[in-house]
# Entry
Amino acid sequence: MLSIYNSKKIPGRLFFNVLASSACLGHTCLIRLIYSVCLVVLGLIFSSAANAQSAPNISPVTGAYSSQPNNGAQTVTIGGTITSSDQLTITVYDHGLPQAYEPVSYTVASSDTLTTIATNLTLAINNDTNLQAIHVSATSIGAIISITSTSSNITSYNSSINSGATETLTLPINVTITGDSGATFYYTTDGSTPTTSSPQYTTPFNITSTTTVKAIEELSGNTSPVTTSFIQIDASSAALSKTGMQLWLKSDNNVTLNSGNVSAWGDI
# Structure
């Protein structure tokens, strides 16, 4: 018979004392014991690896955005109050455009409502031949415009209003969380660490200001590491493209000194 007990505990190791009766064949019993222990340890290792939960994915990833980063539907919400003669502009950026960007503007009339402003801006987008050429179109429902691009290039958007305008144009970022099939996702938008008590993600949601989104997933009782996306909404991050630009670099070579100070740089 075999009697096995743990004689000493060291992290990552177990030392066994084996007492064998005269009926036991010494080395044969020991080999069988080691084989059995290895199977148990390997089983625990593979079980632990199988239960390791992968972290979810958040889209968009950390970065600065002026609009939705992919060529999906970009919504623009018209808000504020009506002031006649205010000018509202939506600018489309795409390398397929003649100047790589195309502004579309509308001047507010005294009879306008937020809904009619959205309708008229939508018409202006759809009537723009340059935007038609790259397959950018728009629809509107109420005060919300949905712009869609099927351009072969990445299309992004920006909005602007004249100084003192009382209307607003808001371009939200749509956030999605994905991961393992069958998993439940939890998230936060205030920078705190999510737990299974945090809001449960079920559908994509919009953000309209710089936000830190954190998410976890739970599957079969296992909770994943935290995924973080710092989404900075910054109108100045819209893609700009200019042709015919020239670049000059300044260095300590070919400089003009005036009383020991550099007063001019030459071309290099």
